[in-house]
Amino acid sequence: MFLPQGKDLGNIDNPLQDDSLQYLLSFAGLIEIKTGAGEGFILTEKGKLSAACFQKSGVIFRGKEALAQMRGWQAENQDDIPVFALREYTPDEFKEASDLCSSHDLLLENRADEKSRRIENLLDESKLKNLMRQPGVIAVSAFFEGFAVQSFGKADFEEVAAMAEDFLRAGMKIARDLKIGLLDQILLETGENKCLIAPYGDLYLCLLTTGDANLGLIRLALKNIREEAE
Questions:
Q1: Domain count, the chain
Q2: CB 3.0-4.6 Å disulfide test: which of 54, 95, 146, 215 passes with 40?
Q3: Residue 131 and residue 95 share a domain
Q4: Element (H, E) at 68
């Protein structure tokens, strides 16, 4: 498959770093990825992940499976530095690339324009910063498909988003197997910290807090912004 060449914008160290992420929220094109385990790409438009492909040991992974392979590689190979190359597309080039990805079954599910607009509306800094102002909250991250799309505070958001996604999927499976209803929140608590994960419109939120944080107040603040997202 030969995707449009686009405009070469060079490499970035990490697309999930704050400075790179802000740029990618207005970027339309291809993120080419080369790692020690394999290589592939993500087709993205203004923060919306449209398609993905990853080849590893001669096996081609498509769509969500490709993203899962990329996340798994990041979690297991922190010392191996990946290369991310950007290729910016015009609207016509993006449509051509999207059509090609569709014909090769690389598109991600549930990426309609309506969902994209909903996600953009959810990325309101004031709402997430309101959570950050709650006593004991260390960091807040809104994530989608294992990738942090907006974050505040001090944390390794790349790892937090990937692990939170895995934790979320496991929680959903447990709730489904036990037939106890739809998942509302997940709480992981240690002696020093707490981690709270909850749905937020088409995104999910992950909050890291101190061990003595008042979860009642935090859940109330979280409930308020979740109701606004419905």
A1: 2
A2: 54
A3: no
A4: helix 64-76
